[in-house]
Amino acid sequence: MYEIFIVVYLLVAMALIGLVLIQHGKGADMGASFGAGASATVFGSSGTGNFLTKTTTILATIFFVLSIVLGNYSAGQSKKVDEWQDLSVPTSEQVELKKDDASDIPVGN
Known about the structure:
The chain is mostly helical.
């Protein structure tokens, strides 16, 4: 189930990025109002603003809901610890030195 959520999450994220990149900026509408030719589009004289805005809103909502679901799903799982992850010397093999024992300090020639 987790893998399905991840795949849907990635597809929604890529679609959201694509929709944001193809949208016009706020200044693009001003050019269409002065007869720049952009008013004769496939989506009608209102342009793609309404369609793309609604689709982006829906995809953003799905993206955030999936983020919360995936966060809650993965928060309850504990990761399997690799035994080779900690390569330090075990505490049972460490030599403890006394602080006041001066014989352990090497003396130079």
